[in-house]
Amino acid sequence: MRALQTAATGMMAQELNVQVISNNIANVRTTGYKRQTVHFQDLLYENFRRAGSATSDQNTMVPAGTFIGSGVKTTSTGRIMSQGNLSSTEKQYDVAIRGEGLFKIRMPDGRTTYSRDGSFDLDAQGQLVTRDGYTVEPGITVPNNATSVSINAQGTVEVQLPGQTAPQTLGQLQLTRFVNKVGLESIGDNLFVETAASGPAIDGVGGGEGFGSLQQNYLEEGNVQAVTELTTLIAAQRAYEMNSKVITAADQMMSATTSMFRG
């Protein structure tokens, strides 16, 4: 019976939906996390009677056809790249982006990745790195005798050194944006990589045209709304249950038909 296969596609789709929701909820406290959402499309239809087909030689036609679909499929699990709330951390190397842009991160193998997670620190050489030790572009090294570090809205890093009245500029943090940021590929560790769908990287700095500004001593929270996710989870669960009811009903109908033949 066709209904069994159709309902099965619905159950598989909702199972994937629940997996995505569970990942969003698991990352509700992940810095810079961008929630995912599932998009669905209906599958192919079988036409038993096409709309507009002729019913006589006098040009009469069928006003509405007979089409039976074969279920649903998942087309994408896109990310919602909206701004998350900024929370104060009081750590001088924590930096949040308010607006567009991603930090540019250089990996140990030379690859370039991108992130909204601005929880930075210093390595043993005084270089600004991520919590995993990856270099934050353009590669800024803070002297070990610096008494204070400031990062302004444009990303300019300045330090105050002993015996000097004026601060010393060390460099400027780079930001990157993409024409289609939803097309970035997530590789874990709060990192994204460029893809053909995202388009090429557009480099800039904080405050530049099309780029956001930076805020020191703050981090961007994930944009997951717990209430929204729980509501979506309940809807997915109910949809799964309804599809399972269809399978049960189809099985009962087939059982009744089989019983007739046995009788």
UniProtKB/TrEMBL annotation:
Keywords: Bacterial flagellum, Cell projection, Cilium, Flagellum. InterPro entries: Flag_bb_rod_N, Flagellar_basal_body_rod_CS, Flagellar_FlgE/F/G, Flg_bb/hook_C_dom, FlgE/F/G-like, FlgG_G_neg, LlgE_F_G-like_D1. This is Flagellar basal-body rod protein FlgG. The basal body constitutes a major portion of the flagellar organelle and consists of four rings (L,P,S, and M) mounted on a central rod. The rod consists of about 26 subunits of FlgG in the distal portion, and FlgB, FlgC and FlgF are thought to build up the proximal portion of the rod with about 6 subunits each. GO terms for cellular component: bacterial-type flagellum basal body, distal rod. It is found in: Bacterial flagellum basal body. It comes from Bosea vaviloviae. Residues 4-34 form the Flagellar basal body rod protein N-terminal domain. Residues 96-159 form the Flagellar hook protein FlgE/F/G-like D1 domain. Residues 215-260 form the Flagellar basal-body/hook protein C-terminal domain. The keyword Magnesium does not apply. GO terms for biological process: bacterial-type flagellum-dependent swarming motility. Belongs to the flagella basal body rod proteins family.
